Amino acid sequence: MKDFIIPAPMFSDRDMGTPASKSKTQVTLEIDGFEVTVPEGTSIMRAAAELGITVPKLCATDSIEAFGSCRLCLVEIEGRNGTPASCTTPVAPGIRVKTQTGKLKQLRKGVMELYISDHPLDCLTCGANGDCELQDMAGAVGLRDVRYQAAENAEMATHFAKKNTSGEANIDWLPKDDSNPYFSYDPSKCIVCNRCVRACEEVQGTFALTIEGRGWDSRVHAGLKDDTFLASDCVSCGACVQACPTATLIEKSVLDIGTPDKSVVTTCAYCGVGCQFKAEMRGDELVRMVPYKHGKANRGHSCVKGRFAYGYASHKDRILSPMIRDSINDPWQEVTWAEAMSFAANRMKAIQAKYGRQSVGVITSSRCTNEETYLVQKLTRGVFENNNTDTCARVCHSPTGYGLGQTFGTSAGTQDFDSVESADVILVIGANPHSGHPVFASRMKKRLRQGAKLIVVDPRRTESVEGPHYRARHHLALKPGTNVAVVTALAHVIVTEGLYNEDFIRTRCDWDEFQDYMEFVSDPRHSPEAIEMLTGVPAAEVRGAARLYATGGNAAIYYGLGVTEHSQGSTTVIGIANLAMLTGNIGRPGVGVNPLRGQNNVQGSCDMGSFPHELPGYRHVKNPEVRAIYENLWGVKIDAEPGLRIPNMLDAAVEGTFKGLYCQGEDILQSDPDTHHVAAGLAAMECVIVHDLFLNETANYAHVFFPGSSFLEKDGTFTNAERRINMVRKVMAPKQGYADWEVTQMFANAMLEGSGRSWGYTHPAQIMEEIAMTTPSFAGVSYEKIESMGSVQWPVNDKAPNGTPLVHVDGFVRGKGKFIRTEYVATDEKTGPKFPLLLTTGRILSQYNVGAQTRRTGNTAWHPEDMLEIHPHDAENRGIRQGDWVRLASRAGVTSLRADITDKVSPGVVYTTFHHPDTQANVITTDFSDWATNCPEYKVTAVQVSPSNGPSDWQEEYAAQATLSRRILPAAE
Amino acid sequence: MQADQINPKIARMANQIAMFMESKPEAEGVEGLSSHINDFWEPRMRRQFFALVDAGGDGLRPLVLKAAEKIRRPAAD
CA nearest B68: which of A403, B47, B23? Predict the structure, then answer.
């Protein structure tokens, strides 16, 4: 792609040919008469690129190691023999390099002539026309003639002609593989440069591609002999497509639309990794999303969701007109924005007048921007005048906020993602980054291939436990619900075997609290041997894991919802913090405690004051000096009492005291536990406003629908799991007319009509100014700063004007690190004769959360329905075969889905995902929750599984009710 | 009547917090439990909580009852 507009020239997108060297030693040399100084280990090709000299190349690109196969990048070095490849030859002090001589020109032209002799010359109709490195290089070396032509009637063949020169079928011609929904593989255009194979290995770490055959027969192939791309291990991350210098691997969208003419850097709206992409556009049509190499979370990599699954934004199911209805049994009526606003405001005002100030509230979205989330919590605090705000972090990482807040003093991860490159031991607990956080997983796997050691604590043998060239040294396959016992046993081993870091604890933590904790944890009842029967983990494995974590060098913990979504979620987070403090694995690169956050802006939604007890920046509403900041600015009194959390809102609704809800970008009916209870709560409300792209499941119970805008249609910021604030940039106008922050503002102003107050933001930058002005940890944040730095990690203030990549470096935010006892308490959710199996839930690579986005993309090719994973023993006992319909029942409800028989799960444990509303896994989950935060216990439900002949009655009733509820009357003329 | 019959959810949640706080020295546990409820339970929940305590608190763990003295009674609506 040429002539791209990139926000700032410092973030040049130029391909430097080979990766940057990290050496601190500098080397000076001369290239084409110009002196250049680069780090030791830099290739001559890259050094030349630093000078602005582009050495012709085909097999080199700066995302992968040099390979030296195309022989195009040859150079001459004074005093050395031959013409070495500049990609594989490192710089040396004082050498004098020539990149353009008569000899080199002749050699390159000869090489190109050979390449082109086996390449079709259909450039004008080729999908890569204008974006083809082969074409560019032919031009760069001045190729004007190809002398090599096959003799006629000689049965000679190329790789690209369907017939040989005798007119017979060419056995070397292979058809296109269009099996992947997003890109095609055309072997006839392949120059076998190996870039795709190396990208799959080095960048993604899947090793799905290979070069099959030798010499003339060498062909790129996915998977085994008979596999297509779709049938192979390929995870469709797009790294191969990005690496391909020709049209061999190319996005189908480029084939359909043509090449883009401009690009805008923005941030992915899927998981909490926060990858940056270039949205490449033609006019206002999105042609493709290409991972941005200066994105500090992803470093130029992507996964199938961010790279390809954006089609939902233009899906026909998107609702583009506001709608209202009197009762949830009525069909929807399309109305103007003004009518929708006045209908919604009148209803909410009437409810507050009748049932009191506390009878309404909001749910902020972890998918929307910081600025939008800030406005929604401001709506409830400043306009509804209560603290009834909550967000989906309640049901995922609220225990992280509590646990890390108590022990370290901050509600966030301690590292940046680059830190994993320095880790020697990686302890993954209750997370499957391979599926949930794929781009981080690729970076982690790269480090594992370099020799870092892996420990995994997870009931399932997930893809993160073993894969190509990595395998966990210790996989603690514990029984769901026993995290605290295992984590405490790890600490027991570290303390009783004297593996703790006394210096660190004495200087950085409270020594008395450590003494108390040591006494607690040393008790033999916490030993690996004592808990073995309970957890199902062999004691020797626990001891081995503890020793490795404590003594293996830099040890980093990454954890996910398998830690938090339990009755003792907060206790496990505390236990994890204890482990890091015990071993001094805090405050430098390669270590730390890293929660892998679920949604793109779940960190941001927590930071922005979405929780009912906290104003932005995690400051409790009980503090009058904090309330005063907002009271003075907003001209309203802030309630000093904590408000309702999501489960409390639903309880209160069923009780009849909570009657109105504004729910932005969140589908609580599908994502929250115990669907029957959620449905009862929603049905009891008098005004439910859903603000979303689609008529989601929650909207079945809504009275007002505000159509939402996608992340491509608005400006703002997302904050990822590293606390990194990334820009989201508008690349097209909102299809329904307004960005979400504008919709919230219209609604607030409709509520405020007649009060003399109103909101008047004209751009999200003004909202960020208000956030910075009122929140100490964001004091130094501004759009100008993010634009100039690319991104910034909070806290950003006078002490850290350029942000904070690592926290707790010289001391904990709270002062001294606090050790807290972690007593194991068994959950009340126990198996018994009626429900003898334990169900645990999770996600899959190709689908995301409730699937509202990914189900409306080609990603359904990989995961068209939720399946129940069950161990062969449990299946056999029940007469269940692969693919059979099974009935899944708990004390909360019943559903049916198909069985997938696998030993990834242990006997006694079953597993499913919750991406599809037809299955509704949350009908099964219960209302048990974390003791500290009410985070639901999604990960442990006692269930029974039995053969079935199809969907349950409830599923059929639900589908019928949903269809009825989604009727839309045509707009009045 | 037992607290977990009157309002099983509130009784269960209070007891769950107590089970965590019981591993601390008692004074610290009482302080931890009461401030946790004061900080995170909205007035409606605290009102329901005091309904259990005022009904005798049968079924609530002893630490919950000790902490109740330090828990803020919500203002009447």
Answer: B47
Of A562, A595, A628, the one marking the end of a domain is: A595
Q: Is residue B24 in a domain?
A: yes
Percent of chain B with pLDDT over 90: 81
Q: Are the beta carbons of A927 and A674 closer than 8 angstroms?
A: yes
* Residue B56, domain extent: 3-68
How many Cα atoms within 13 Å fall on the side-chain side of residue A529?
A: 3
In the block, tokens 């404590």 appear at A550
Rounded Cα distance between A372 and A767, Å, is 9
Which DSSP category does A390 fall into?
A: E
CA–CA distance, A796 with A782 (Å, rounded to integer): 10
Q: Rounded to an integer, what distance in angstroms lies between the CA atom of residue A621 and that of residue A768?
A: 21
Residue A555, domain member (yes or no) = yes
Domain-located, residue A843 = yes
Provide the number of structural domains found in chain B: 1
Given a contact cutoff of 8 angstroms between Cβ atoms, the answer to whether A259 and A131 are in contact is yes
Identify the CA nearest to A549 among candidates A478, A492, A494.
A494
Distance CA A673, CA A646 (A): 11
Give pLDDT tens digits for A645-663. Answer: 999 999 999 999 999 999 9
Burial level of B36, CB count in 10 A (0-12/13-18/19+)? buried
Q: Report the CATH number at residue A852.
A: 2.40.40.20
User: Out of B16, B43, B45, whose CB is closest to A931?
Assistant: B16
Q: Please give the pLDDT value at position A771.
A: 97
Has residue B3 got a pLDDT over 80? no
pLDDT at res. A971: 65
CB A334 within 8 A of CB A321: yes
> Averaged over B46-74, what is the pLDDT?
94
Task: Give the C-alpha separation, A158 to A162, whole Å.
Answer: 9
Residues A742 and A851 in one domain: no
Q: CA of A641, closest CA in chain B: separation in Å?
A: 6
Q: What is the DSSP letter of A24?
A: S
In a domain, residue A634? The reply is: yes
**Confidence class of residue B76 from pLDDT cuts 50, 70 and 90?**
low
B73 lies in a domain? no
CA dist A935 and A930 (Å) reads 5
* 8 A C-beta contact, residue B15 and residue B3: no
Residue A65 included in any domain: yes
Q: How much is the ipTM here?
A: 0.95
Same domain (yes/no): A417, A519: yes
Residue B74 is assigned to a structural domain of this protein: no
- Tell me which chain B residue has its CA closest to the CA of residue A620: B39
Residues A193, A69 contacting (CB under 8 angstroms): yes
pLDDT digits over A539-573, tens only? 999 999 999 999 999 999 999 999 999 999 999 99
Q: How many structural domains does chain A have?
A: 4
As a whole number, the mean pLDDT across chain B is 92
Whether A737 and A779 map to the same domain: the answer is yes
Query: Which DSSP category does A420 fall into?
Result: G
pTM above 0.90? yes
Query: What stretches in chain A show pLDDT beneath 70?
Result: 1-10, 971-973
Q: Which residues in chain B are contacts of A645 at CB distance < 8 A?
A: 40, 42
Q: A532 lies in which domain range?
A: 404-595
DSSP labels for A798-855?
SS-TT--SSSSSSSBTTBSB----------S----SSS-EEEEEE--TT--TT-TTGG
Strands A332-334 and A968-969: parallel
> Do A368 and A502 have their domain in common?
no
Alpha-carbon distance A402 to nearest alpha carbon in chain B (angstroms): 11
Chain B neighbors of A567, CB-CB under 8 A: 16
Query: Which residue, of A549, A569, A595, is where some domain finishes?
Result: A595
Q: Kindly report the nearest CA distance between residue A929 and chain B, in angstroms.
A: 8
